[in-house]
Amino acid sequence: MRLIGLAVSITLSLLPALFVAGAQLTGKVYRVGFLSFNRPPSDPVPPVYPFSAFRPALRQLGYVEGQNIAIETRWADLKPDLLPILAAELVSLQVDVIATAGDGEVRAAMQATHTIPIVMAVSGDPVRSGYVTSLRRPGGNVTGSSALSPDLGAKMLELLKEAEPKVGRVAVLWNAANPVKELDFRETERAARVLGLRVQSLEVRGATDFERAFTVIARERLDALLTLPDEFMFHQSNRERIAKFIKKQQVPTIFGHRAHVEEGGLMSYGPSHHALFARAATYVDKILKGAKPADLPVEQPTKFELVINLKTAKSLGLTIPQSLLARADQVIE
Predict the structure, then answer these.
(1) Helix, strand and coil percent figures for the chain, each rounded to 5
(2) Residue whose C-alpha is closest to residue 187's, from 128, 116, 103
(3) How much is the average pLDDT of 3-19?
(4) Cα angle, residue 330 at apex, residues 327 and 333 outer, rounded to 5°
(5) Mean pLDDT of the chain
(6) Closest CA to 78 of 123, 50, 40, 26
């Protein structure tokens, strides 16, 4: 009797584990695609990669890889021609949703499918780019976040002029291979006229174009450099190219991502990309629970980060106004 009782006790004690194991085996396992123009990061993903916020956000929402979710990542390794191929690959895997890291990825995913939901972690102007009908009612299979990038250039110019009032001519470095960036540049150009500044357009389409752009800045003795935010500009190899040049040229700079400032740039201003990628996880969650992308409004960031590198300011001989320092989210000393 004791043996029988012991057996019953062991069996009962194992039931919860058996139940969980059964749930893992028989429950729904969602497949989420993630498409990025960038190079695959090392494992673990470095904190500078916004993608490092995506997986933890899904975990906080109750998704565990290997149990109820599988994440299929596809990296284009800075090769735009690969994006349509990788997007089609994700569609062939019949993923439940595709999360995209930038504008090029959105376009590639839209070409690959009109039915699988697409979540934009970051986008410039999704309405003008034709991704959605409106921010409130996207109307198709695309939704997510807009980084309001066309408006950023104007604010970045204002901050640059506030930090260095003597600035008159500003080099604007932008990725001409990304059609959305032309909209950003035109808005920046328009804002410059209002501020009494002149801008010099420096277009890059590949890594070999940087040296040409840097030569123009040095030859024309332009007063400052503004780099429009873009995945191509964010990539580590290109950040290193820019950091090396500005250290040599000693020119005031402003960027759209804080990583550039951590590597020697003067200032950055823009939405937190980590927050945008974490927010993308909430869109994925809603869609997996039955929401339709057409009915999920595109969100715009409400929090923009200003980061200032005082070490760089000192090396440039600049005194950053206290009023500007007081508004900074982070000051690197």
Answers:
(1) 45, 20, 35
(2) 128
(3) 41
(4) 115
(5) 88
(6) 40
Q: If you write DSSP's letter for every residue of 261-286 in order, what string do you get?
A: HHTT-SEEEEE-HHHHHHHHHHHHHH
Q: Count of CB atoms within 10 A of residue 79's CB?
A: 12
Domain with CATH 3.40.50.2300 in the chain: 24-147+274-295, 149-272+304-332
Identity of the residue numbered 192:
A
**Region 125-146 average pLDDT:** 94
Angle at CA 78, nearest 5°, toward 73 and 81?
90
Residue 271 in contact with residue 301, Cβ under 8 Å?
A: yes
Which pLDDT value is given to residue 48?
Answer: 66
Q: How far is CA 201 from each of CA 13, 156, 228, 275, rounded to the nearest angstrom?
A: 70, 15, 11, 30
24-147+274-295 — its CATH code?
Answer: 3.40.50.2300
Contact assessment for residue 139 and residue 294, using Cβ atoms and an 8 Å cutoff: yes
Averaged pLDDT, 280-300: 97
In whole angstroms, give the CA distance from residue 122 to residue 57.
16
Please state, in angstroms and as integers, the Cα–Cα distance from residue 321 to each residue in 167, 207, 238, 318, 331, following that order: 15, 35, 30, 9, 13
pLDDT tens per residue, range 33-54: 999 988 887 777 677 677 889 9
In the chain, alpha helices (H): 2-26, 54-60, 82-92, 103-112, 149-163, 179-195, 209-220, 231-234, 236-249, 258-262, 273-288, 310-316, 322-327
Class (C level, CATH) for 149-272+304-332 = alpha beta
Q: Is 196 helix (H, G, I), strand (E, B) or coil?
A: coil
For tokens 């760089």, name the residue: 312
What are 131's two structure tokens?
Answer: 């991704």
Confidence (pLDDT) at 180: 80
- For CA atoms 29, 30, 33, 34, the dihedral sign is negative
Q: Residue 24 pLDDT more than 50?
A: no
Which position has the token pair 């420096």? 202
Helix, strand or coil, per DSSP, at residue 198: strand
What tokens appear for 96 in the block? 């439940």
Tokens standing for residue 79: 């090769």
